[in-house]
Amino acid sequence: MRFTVVETGYDQRQVDYCLDELGIRLSRLAARAEGAAGAAREWDEIRQEAAWLSGLLQRLDLGDAVVNRYAADAVRGEAAEILAQARVELDAAREEARRVRERAYAEAVQARRDVEAALDARRRREARVEEILSQVTVDQVPADTPTAAAGVPGRRVGVGRPDAGAEPPPGRR
């Protein structure tokens, strides 16, 4: 992030805009992390439902042991596939959430470093300005001293009309 350097530090509007943009990006990343956590909860529910269905099939006695065993094995196999797929997707969601968290943290740390560096540079410039200003000496001007601003426009010497006692410059008549 580069900011325009102005007389008193970095351009405050640019810094504020940058911080707002970082806030928006962090909010988006947090929303993505929450979405990944929601997906993990959904897969937990699916896993529980598959386990419940598997238990239900084990408890049912439909009379034909071979058919029941075949159906139970098929359901267990399907439940195992669903569970395996859920685990894979849960692991992927956790990994994505971890990457999002790491990226958000890294961006926040970098933004903080940038702001701290900008503030440090501003403090150094302030100190330099104070040092320069402390070396400046100012002489008081008495209140009754005539100044150019005290004159009335058009009545001062050299303004509007030639002065009665003044001679024109050489070479002009």
Cα distance, first to last residue? 66 Å
Strand order of the largest sheet: 1-2
Query: What is the CATH fold-level name?
Result: Helix Hairpins
Shape: rod-shaped
Task: Describe this protein with a few key phrases.
single chain, 173 residues, mainly alpha, Helix Hairpins, two-stranded antiparallel sheet, 2 helices, 2 strands, rod-shaped
Explained architecture:
The chain has a single domain (5-138), classed as Helix Hairpins (Orthogonal Bundle), CATH 1.10.287. Helices cover 69% and strands 2% of the residues. It contains two helices and two strands. Helix 1 (12-59) runs antiparallel to helix 2. It is rod-shaped.
In summary, what is this structure?
It comes from Micromonospora inaquosa. Helix content is 69%, strand content 2%.
Task: Please render the helix and strand layout as text.
Blueprint: E1 5-6, E2 9-10, H1 12-59, H2 65-135
Antiparallel strand pairs: 1-2
